[in-house]
Structure formats: C-alpha cells, structure tokens
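Entry for S-adenosylmethionine complex. Fields follow.
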Amino acid sequence: MEIKKNEEYVVDIIDNGMEGEGIAKINDFVIFISGAIKGEKIKILIVKVLKTHAYGKIVKIIEKSPYRIEEDCTTYKRCGGCQLRHIDYEETLNIKQRNVQNLVNKVFKKGQIKVHKTIGMGNPYHYRNKAQYPVAINKEGKVQIGVFAQRSHEIIQMQKCFIQNEIAEKIAFAIYKFIKQKGIEPYNEKEQTGILRHIVIKVGMRTHEVMCILVVNNKKMPCESQLVDMLVKEYDVKTIIKNINDKNTNVILGNQNITLHGDGYIYDILGEYTFKISPISFYQVNPVQAEVLYNIAIEMANLTKEDILFDLYCGIGTIGIFASPYVKKVYGIEIVEQAIKDAKENAKINKIDNIEFYVGDVERVFSNLMEKKQVYPDVIIVDPPRKGLDKNTINNILAVQPKKVVYISCNPATMVRDMKLLEEKYEVKEIQPVDMFPFTSHVECCSVLYLKDSIQ
Ligand SMILES: C[S@@+](CC[C@H](N)C(=O)[O-])C[C@H]1O[C@@H](n2cnc3c(N)ncnc32)[C@H](O)[C@@H]1O
C-alpha cells in the first residue's frame, strides 16, 4: 500500500525514537509521529512522504498509553526545549534506555553490551543552572524574550518553564520589563540593528550565586548603570557581564567580556568541591545529575593509587578533581583557554596537588603531552562534545593502549560509533545512562572500554 500525503491512517505505535517521536509502520514503511507513545493506537494524517519514511501528525488517539500524562507547560508544543512532557517521568527513563540499547544493538552483536536502566532524578523540575533567552522584536513590533520555537528563529514569549531554575526566570523577566520601560532596542537579526541580543543567566545551585550576562551588539548600552543597580539591589546578582557579540552568527556569546559588576565569575559546589565558573567555560547544566555522573564514572573506572589518569575534554577540571584522590596523578586537556585558567584555580581552591592542566585541542595536545613529558595514561576519561572523538584521538588511544577508557557522552550515537572504532583493542560490557536532561530527548551515558589484552 502506498502511503499518501494528506491521507489519514490508523496505526499502532511500536516504539519511541531518539527525539521522543512515536514510530509506526505500515507494510514496513516507517512513519514518525510527534507526540505519540509506544503502545498507542492513533489516527494520523500524513504530512510529508519521503523515499524511506514519512511523517504523520496525530488526528485522534484511539487507544491511549497508560504513560500519557497531562502536559503541564503552556508552550510545550511550540518550544524546542522539551520533547517528553506528555509522558510519565519513569517511562521517559525506560525510553532513553531502550533508545541507547537499540543503537548499541545496531552496531554490536545483540547481547554483547548491556544498557542499564537510566538513572533519573528524584525531583526532575527546575534542574537547569543556565538559561539563555534570545531578545527580539516580533512581527507585531513588540519586544519579546523567551525561547526559540522548534527548528526556527521565531521567539516564543517567556512563560513559566519547568526545567529552568526559577531565579533565572525572575531576573530575565525583570530585565525584560526594564528594557521595555527604557526603550532599549533588541537586536534585529535581519537588519543587524539594535543592541540587546541575549540574556544569559548562570546560577550556582548550591551557593545561590548568580551571574548575569547581557549579550549586546555594541559596546554602548543605554541606562546600563541603572540596569546594573536594579539587578544588584533587587536580585542580589553577584556578577554582571557585558558580552560583545557583533557577528552575524547563531553562536550566542562573543569573544569580549566586560565586567560591569562583581568579579566576573561565580562559584558552585559539587560533591565536596567548590568550582569557579566564568561566562564562557563549560559547566554541566544539571549539577545534581553531574555529581551522580561523576561518581558513577569514578566507580566504573575502579581507579588505583598507581594510576596516571588523563581527563580529556576536561572543561573547568570537574571530573579530574573528583577523581584526584583515587589516582597518582591527573592530566587534564581542554581547548578553551579560560576553562583551563578556571581549572587551575579550581585545583588550588580545593587544595588538589596531583593535577595538571593543558590548553589545546585533544587531537594534538594528547600526543604532545605524552611525547614532551614522557607520561602515559593507565586510564583515560573522555567527555567530548556531541561530535565525539576525532580520528587522531581514536588512533592515539589505539596506539597508547591505556588499560581502561571511561567514555562519558551526551550523544550516544557518536559514543557507539567511537566504541566500534576502538573495538579491535577494547571491549565494552555495559553502558549506564544518566538522566542529565529530564523531559528532553537527550541522555548522558557513561561506559568503560577495557583493553582486551588486560582482561583476565
Ligand atoms: C561535554 S564538555 C565536558 C566538560 C567537562 N568534562 C565537564 O564535565 O564539565 C566538553 C568539553 O570539551 C571541550 N572541547 C571541545 N572540543 C575540544 C577539543 N577538540 N579539544 C579539547 N577540548 C575540547 C569543550 O570546550 C568542553 O569544555
């Protein structure tokens, strides 16, 4: 039977995909249906047909999943932030586990790698410590701040968000009111006019320290000192930074930071450690789960006091610092210079003296470090960005052959790809997903690759 656009069909949802979408098949032809849940029977309207698959939208839910819940968010359908708010939280953890297991089974022999149940949060609400609100004028000429609509640059006016921390939302709203009152012009992407582009707010969830970054197109901002006074007096903001971004780009932050108030950074506490956070350095967005993840990584690594540990893609040094009491020495590598400055400072603050940090691209610095210092890792922890490991790093690992590689990843697809590339020398037994981003389709994973020759 040929699937036709604008025709209605009744389908059974057989699974949920990597983006949370429901999956159905008509005569083996795959159809993706946003908002559908495994186990449901649904009347759908086909909206797009491609060669290998089609997209449908829900017309009527004929048999409802027991996991379907009332959506709590008024902008859920339009906002690109969450994909799973219509599903019971526990079930979202099962979906994430299944998705990672399916990925693994496509690449490795069935049963070779076991994916465990996703570790969820006790309270999966308001968990994010970083908020980024675009500012713009809408079609009606009104100032808006909020979130980008799914796959678009249209801004949905900010409403109550259930994953964002509440103080960030309050402060952003106060800035919104202020710029409207004072007539401060938002940036216009098309014309490249106006001033304020983004409001970025970072919060130390345990210290309650707040950093506010005003991303502007131009060094001059009207009523700047009044805005700073308001944020400090009324919201006790610890530091305020003006970030200059005059490029026509999707990247939120520009390269230049001007501190308008405070020291230009905040602190947060993870486990028993204090971390200094600057405007541009990476810091995990869900600190509660970051702690869970780091502890799992260290437990899975089964480190010893004899081990030399390389922490590749180390950010501000968090994982290396967590691991430092269990090993002889840690070497961290990270490409962002400011992050390495923060990492060195973090080692000092926490009185860690068996750790060294190096700035640069892992692709080159990993081998340089070994050649120059003649140090070789017994264990490596990698926590790369979404694109995963580069070829050089894969080859370096295969050449150096540390006995274990702990792979932490926010993108299971590239993690599984890299595991396959390392398969000639390394064996993976299990993967532990951690729910770092509740109610979104994203999942963090942690796994250990064991050097085959060293397995007894
Ligand atoms: C997912 S974050 C992990 C950071 C840290 N491990 C943590 O848990 O906070 C990835 C980090 O890799 C850094 N990075 C990206 N590409 C890199 C590269 N080619 N070489 C070194 N670091 C890189 C980013 O700046 C970022 O800090």
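NOTE: The CA atoms of residues 57 and 142 lie 32 Å apart.
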